Amino acid sequence: MDDRVRRRVGILVGVGLAGGLLPGVTMGAETVDVLLSVMIATMVIVVLTQLVFIGPSGRVPVRMLLVFGGLGFLQDALIWWLLSWLAPKISAMHVEGWGTILLAALLTRTAMVVASQLTSRTEIAAD
């Protein structure tokens, strides 16, 4: 699996976790609203993280991973802040408060970094 695909899967998982675990993130009342909200949030985050890419492409030492993770967390927090303003205008999603924005950014970035660092042994051996 390509690194970009792994990052996108990580973003999808992170948005799903943020919507499911955080009480300040409301995705909607019906299943269709929830799916639409998750897809919109995922698409916004994927597009913006592709435009301004912060992160490693492949495996890196832990120290660099922490630097990339911190900068990416800041980027994701700004994107979730944008979503807190934009999402109620186009979907049933609602994000309340700075604490929720920061926790959602932390969940999203952690899931993305974990997904991007998961590689099979054959991919590591091929490098």
Short description:
It comes from Streptomyces roseolus. By secondary structure, the chain is mainly alpha-helical. It is built from five helices and two strands; from the N terminus they run αβααβαα.
Write the layout of secondary structure elements.
Elements: H1 3-21, E1 25-26, H2 31-51, H3 62-90, E2 94-95, H4 97-117, H5 121-126
Antiparallel strand pairs: 1-2
Commentary on this structure:
The two termini are 14 Å apart. The protein is globular. With 127 residues, it is mainly alpha-helical. The model has no long low-confidence stretch (mean pLDDT 85). Helix 1 crosses helix 2. It has a two-stranded antiparallel ribbon with strand order 1-2. It has one domain (3-119). Helices cover 76% and strands 3% of the residues. This is Integral membrane protein. Keywords: Membrane, Transmembrane, Transmembrane helix. The chain crosses the membrane at residues 9-28, 34-53, 65-83, 95-115.
Classification by helices and strands:
mainly alpha
Low-confidence stretches: none
Distance between the first and last residues' Cα: 14 Å
How large is the count of helical segments?
5
Radius of gyration: 15 Å
Largest sheet: 2 strands, antiparallel
For the record, the count of structural domains works out to 1
**Total number of beta strands:** 2
3D shape = globular
Strand content: under 5%
From N to C, what is the helix and strand string?
Answer: HEHHEHH
Oligomer: single chain
